[in-house]
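Researcher: I need the complex structure. Ligand is manganese (II) ion. Inputs:
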Amino acid sequence: MMYSSRRKPVLYFKDDRSFLSRKCTVWKLFGFCMVFVLGSLLWVQLTCSGDMNQTVGYSHLPHQPCPIERQSSSPDDPSWGPHKMALIVPFRERFEELLIFVPYMHAFLNKKKIRHKIFIINQVDRFRFNRASLINVGHMESDNDTDYIAMHDVDLLPQNEDLDYGFPEEGPFHVASPELHPLYHYKTYVGGILLLTKKHYQMCNGMSNRFWGWGREDDEFFRRLKTAKLELFRPTGITTGTKTFRHIHDPAWRKRDQKRIAAQKQEQFKVDPEGGLTNLRYKVESRKEVTISGAPCTVISIALECDFSQTPWCQSS
Ligand SMILES: [Mn+2]
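Model: Output:
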């Protein structure tokens, strides 16, 4: 009795010692490693799902994909197809929107395996904003390895991954169609986001350079598509309605320049049969390769030129 009770603790002691022996330290190390790996994976998951939203203050935005998600397939992969898109963003003074737009679109397009390059066409002259001329500049300045363009508003973020951003072989493809756009619902609307092959864009002679200030340049472009006899295509089978896009524009802060100066009131509804790529005049002030939260883009600062005899309304005062 006394004998066995004395032996038992010894046995336990032996057990404890064997737990500390070299053989088991390997297993403990392995265990620690597993805990560390799982812990760091959890950390990556948590930080990726929230960082952008918190720092910029747009807590309602969808989560930013992780670097791991982005690298799951690369543009060198032949399954991405032969085409490359020049994503052209007419731009001025929308810095906070740009910080959101570039990483969001880069991840969105990568996920859809759309080869792309983002061009921010930044208007730095003192004339009124000219969206159409900036898109013309984007077409001229985009690299030769891109064979189609997306004219894309900086404040419109696609929320539905079923939206097609592929090569618009058959004709212009209006991604931000009137049934899906949060604000504009008229049938002939072609603004917001429109994809065209470079060939089709040239067939239209690009866009008119006569539109200074907000609006109407897209309506004039619709008539160019008709003149060039191009068929317009729009998304089908998208079930998210007017929630398909998130419009991050704050109109109270970024007021639209809707002034109509002098003859502009009458001129804004006219077609411009002559002008376009052929009479575009601009100067490249700088061209910079920029990375925003890991997403690359090219920022091209542009000074547009204005023919005062033709469009005296290019100046705001
Ligand atoms: Mn807007």
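Model: Summary of the prediction. The chain is about 35% helix and 15% strand.
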